[in-house]
Amino acid sequence: MDIRVGCGYDVHALAEGLRLVLCGVEVPHTKGCVAHSDGDVAIHAICDALLGALALGDIGKLFPDSDAKYKGIDSTLLLNEVVELIRSKGYSINNIDCTIAMQRPKLRPYIDTMRARLAEVMGIAVERVSIKATTTEHLGFEGREEGVSATAVVLLIEA
Ligand code: MG
After folding, report:
1. How far is the CA of 51 from the centre of ligand 1 (A)?
2. 123 C-beta neighbours (distance < 10 Å), count
3. How close is the Cα of 126 to the center of ligand 1, in Å?
4. Does the pTM of the predicted model rise above 0.90?
């Protein structure tokens, strides 16, 4: 049995008046992510972790931001496509662990909704999806509320 680990990282700048979408869930805030897609930084990190586990490149290779069809796209559609690709290669997702770093707003009230949404999109049990949030104690670009970052680790098992 083959097991694979993958890690992903993504960053988006924040700007006033944009929607903030994290893990497929809209979070009420005055700022949102600047992006070609919906700017779901957490899903982008998870996609890169999944792709990385099987050395399939990265999200920018699969869904180039030069392609107009991805403009404003719901990132859950991208995640669904990546999961289908992983399954087509004969692997299943054992678990995912993702950390979102942003200073504000507090994400705790949305975490369980995010986990449920991701579990639904990926077709796995919610117990296998961990989403965590941290501030950076006002340090760095996240702390200055200029941007948001996300890291993700996944474990895949050969089905
Ligand atoms: Mg991104």
Report:
1. 14
2. 12
3. 23
4. yes
